[in-house]
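Q: I'm writing a short methods note and want an example of a predicted protein-small molecule complex. Could you take the sequence and the SMILES for calcium ion and return the bound structure as tokens? Please keep the output block clean; save any remarks for afterwards.
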Amino acid sequence: MRRNLRIALAGLLAGLICLALLSRPSPARAAEETVHVTLITGEAVTVTVRTDGTKVYSRPSRSMPSQPSSGVASNSIGGGHSAEIDGLFFDIDYLIDNGYHKLSYLPVVLTAPDRQSLPALAALAAATGGRVTYVSRLIPAVAVELPLAGVAQSAGAIAATPAASGLWLDATARADLSVSVPHIGANLVWANGYRGEGTIIAVLDTGINSAHDFLDDLDDNPATTDPKVLESLDFTDTTPDDIQGHGTHVASTAAGTGAGTGKTGVAPQAYLWSIKVLGGSSGVGLTSWILAGLDYAALGPDMEANTGDEADVINMSLGNPVNTDGRDPLAAAVDAAVAAGRVVVVSAGNRGPNASTLGTPGVAWDAITVGAKSLIDTKRPSPAGGRRRTCG
Ligand SMILES: [Ca+2]
Ligand SMILES: [Ca+2]
Ligand SMILES: [Ca+2]
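A: Understood, no commentary inside the block.
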């Protein structure tokens, strides 16, 4: 019964998470700019960004894996490695557009073939000068900052160990806009008695303003003490507050009480957990922050599966527009959360509707991934769709 309720609720949420802007156009630049990017190979690439946003890529001083006439270099970090290497490490445009060239280190997520291999992998990363910033519970993965000085040697040593199955850029995910409401037929579900009573929805987002009149208490009666937002955690490098506003919007759409206006969320009786994984005023988060938030939502404060302290539904109106084969850390962690008994609802992105336009973690096999829908029952112009990228 509880499972059915969860699924009904998740279905409602799925209808609501209409999408948004995964990639935003770059603002016009005031002047031509020259930036330097150090790749995981240790090679330095100089890029001139013109005022119209176009880029000119230099030949590096040392031999490059390939001539970077485009924004993508060939993905080789030396011979003999056994681990999979994320293509984003060689996507020069992605690295610049997301500010990685401004860092003195390369943030990576290392995956291991199994949990037993994780301590050896973390130890090796630390021995090469890396700083371990997070160890995932849902999947065998560890987030590490590798100093740019000696990054090629560090990455080469890590890639060569059997304790590593993959090296991934600690990529950035962004908030997806959420539109919508009663249009999806929530009233039909309410008529069957489902209003989310007793259900906990973890909102992995920019935070939630728990003082908002729609979110401050379950019965919209200040005379009774019955908070709706039961947890507020911050896994970003900013503050727990919802500076950006997206998380509060999503939370209200999912579970807002309406405060007498009649504009309630889909599950007005549900509780909320605010799991802040997107920081700053722009709503951007690292993969490692989201892995940490997923651990908490799916496993609860005791970090163990199915002990009764977990969220029932996990909502992720966020994504990285990179279409993967579903084995990247974010998608793998979402699948692990579902395997741990949670219902996970993820937005699809809006690069579609063509093939291979789903972002991650929308590509996760077991997530309920939701595309966009307009209020006149046509698909929005560009909801992401299609299948994940296939292997081989
Ligand atoms: Ca209220
Ligand atoms: Ca109250
Ligand atoms: Ca638990």
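A: Remarks, as requested: The chain has two domains: 2-22+176-370, 33-171. The chain is about 20% helix and 20% strand.
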